[in-house]
Amino acid sequence: MNSDRRKILGAAVATAVAGLFGNMGVAQASVEDTEAAIKAFAGDAEIGSGSLTLKAPEIAENGNSVPISVLVDSPMTDDAYVESVVILAEGNPNPAVATFHFSPASGEALASTRMRLAKTQNVIAVAKMSDGSIYSDKRNVKVTIGGCGG
Amino acid sequence: MYSRRDFLQFAAVSAALTGFSGGLTKVAAQQKLTQDDLLSFNSKGQLTLLHLTDMHAQLKPLYFRPPSENYGVGAFEGIPPHLVGESFLKHFNLDRGSALAYAHTMVDYVDLARTYGRLGGLDRTATLINAIRADRGDNNVILLDGGDTWQGSYTALKTNAQDMVDCMALLKPDAMVGHWEFTLGTDRVLEIVESMDYPFLASNIVDTDWEEPVFDSTAFYERGNTKVAVIGQAMPYTPIANPRWMFPGWSFGLRTELLQENVNKAREAGAEVVVLLSHNGFDVDQKLATVVDGIDVIFTGHTHDAVPEALNINNTLVLSSGSHGKYLGRIDLEVSNGKVTDYASTLIPVFSDVITPDPVMKAAIDKVRAPYEPELGRVLGKTDSLLYRRGNFNGTWDDLICEGMMAERDAQLAFSPGFRWGTTLLPGDDITVEDLYAQTAMSYPSVYRLEFNGNQIKEILEDVCDNLFNTDPFFQQGGDMVRVGGMAYSCSPKQSMGSRISDMKLISTGEAIEANKNYVVAGWASVNEGVEGPAIYDLMESYISKQASISMPKNDAVKIVGM
Questions:
Q1: Nearest to A144 among B240, B410, B421 (CB)
Q2: With an 8 Å Cβ cutoff, is B372 touching chain A?
Q3: Is the CB of residue B140 less than 8 Å from the CB of residue B335?
Q4: What's the CA gap between B238 and B148, in Å, rounded?
Q5: Smaller CB count within 10 Å for chain A: N or C?
Q6: Is B302 among the domain residues?
Q7: C-alpha distances in angstroms, B357 versus B35, B122, B326, B409?
Q8: A-chain residues near B280 (CB < 8 A)
Q9: Pick from B351, B368, B385: which residue ends a domain?
Q10: Are B315 and B185 contained in the same domain?
Q11: Domain count of chain A?
Q12: Position B67 in a domain
């Protein structure tokens, strides 16, 4: 191919799709790292399901800012409340994303945030209750190049 | 089943008037098929719902070849809409060569196109709608526009969709939803929505700051002495499939919990019938019907599937009314004691040659087109081949576009998006400006030229392939596989993401595409902001004008494995 011609044509679009492949080649936390983080948070307690609902989009519209929310079903009284919820992203370089702390004064164990997801992965929320019991919920969030829908 | 009986009656009418393909002259076909045949329907109950979707700004009658491949995976393999050609004819008991065989399949396509002529045309559709309203009573009919109405033609591009807005207003729809509409940008969408006499609904669009609703989710109607709620659902993956920067403040998504809340609210407000006007796609809505309770009818669009009758999934009727104005979808409901007790459904194929155009709509179409007529009819070239777009992996129009991009941008490879909109040209037809824009008219048309390495090329193909063949329809974004020029590959749709694409090769030399080697790629419709390069319609005008005639060889560059 004639390289001069290539340069001329190429110059017009040099910056064109710079963001397109930002998802590639990013170092990721291993599933083991995530499990270790859960273990550190939960101790030896058995992890139950239910009570905790993690909401996340099926497919991220923008991997740099993925909205998620957690809601834990709890009376939030002095006798029974949610102490904390940790959010983990299995495929990010460091799995720990956020920890939310609650008290009976919180009224409701509801929190939302936005997180960066470098690639398609599981997002995991783990809640620790005042009686030491642990609940978890998981969502797989797809991060895609996009652009070809009809 | 009654709905099936209605459908079979029409099938019999159309079958009776044809013998075998090509054996019937156009005149004879038209003498025997009548407007009354098209409208004939065993109506039910007191309420009629009409659905028009994915017109892609096509005001005039057109040819639209149905796909030869539309693979389904997982639970959706081998069932409608993933039946094509002979399998479709067999499943729906249609005779080869019949009017419905022509409307729904590509079997004997060119012969039957010459026999039965074009489908669609908003003036013909207006005639059908007027006739149904007259028959059933204006106050017993709801007309719904499923979106992808404002994009896809030369005149829609030049008028910023005002042509479609003006013509659709005459039909007096009761509500609409959107997808490509959003590629006009936030300001223009809001400007049009404020000017409309009917609501633009979206249960699943919230603002990105506070996640509060941007549009009304629901509209209520008293029709057929029944309280009806219509909830709207925009294409959930619009910000991924199309440029998010054009509507940066809006977030979409499936939002099934929010939809369930809105269904519940509609019921609490007294709705006896709840209709979802959806741009989710057919497979998505088939799954949706199993996870959201309390919806009586889903009118679905986006995937351009035309299935002749509604599916009944968990007591939710799901009707997919095709695209490009080829069909008018109809569901009649009998409602008693606040419940749907009986129904009938059909897709009415809009055979343009046997329907008298509605004069008011015809005048409106003529008016919006008048300033552009000389340009619309300007001939750029001629095709010796059938030019069409639909198909999971390629269509001859996209083969031509890939060829044009590689030649005009001096590239080794080309990528063309897997859009499902675009009309069909028959062998021997002229290619006009109008025809070219029916494939390319959109608001982010720049043709980029970039170097990608083999790894990146594979990642792109794998990513798009997973949008099409993920076994969970909630992860399917609609559209077909990205089309490629200059390369061959194998695809195994039933494998998982990362394992579907193999054997990537350069067609020119037969060499394998190497992971770390760079290749010059031209492509269009990038969702990124600031893409530079010539517009695809200008580039293709230049390319087509240089060819004596267009002849597209059979394309077997993609080898499908395991289907």
A1: B240
A2: no
A3: no
A4: 11
A5: N
A6: yes
A7: 11, 8, 15, 44
A8: none
A9: B368
A10: yes
A11: 1
A12: no
Residue A147 forms part of a structural domain: no
B174 within 8 A of B142, measured Cβ to Cβ: yes
* A56 CB-side CA count, 13 A: 30
Percent of chain B with pLDDT over 70: 94
Q: Which of A18, A61, A150 sits opposite B244 (nearest CB)?
A: A61
Judged by CB atoms closer than 8 Å, whether chains meet at B448 and A13 is answered as yes
In angstroms, the Cα distances linking B373 to B61, B367, B432 are 16, 10, 11
- On whether any CB of chain A is under 8 Å from the CB of B516, the answer is no
Cβ contact A16–B532 (<8 Å): yes
Interface contact A20, partner B, CB < 8 A? yes
Q: How many Å apart are CA B59 and CA B149, to the nearest integer?
A: 10
Could you list the residue range(s) of the whole structural domain that residue B532 is in? 377-560
Q: Which residue of B has its CA nearest to A58?
A: B475
Give A-chain residues touching B409 at CB under 8 angstroms. 9
Q: How far apart are CA B186 and CA B163, in angstroms?
A: 19
Q: Is the pLDDT of residue B22 over 50?
A: no
For residue B244, pLDDT beyond 70: yes
Token digits of residue B206 = 């919230």
* Mutate which: A2, A7, A59, vs B, most B CBs within 10 A: A59
Asked, for residue B285, whether it belongs to a domain, the answer is yes
The ipTM is 0.84
Which of B120, B121, B96 lies closest to B109 in space, CA to CA? B96
Task: Provide the CATH number for the domain around residue A54.
Answer: 2.60.40.2470
Using CB atoms within 10 A of its CB, is residue A133 exposed (0-12), middle (13-18) or buried (19+)? middle
B478 to chain A: which residues are within 8 Å by CB? Answer: 149-150
- Kindly report the number of other CB atoms within 10 A of residue B130's CB atom: 15
Task: State residue B18's pLDDT score.
Answer: 41
Predicted TM-score (pTM) of this structure? 0.91
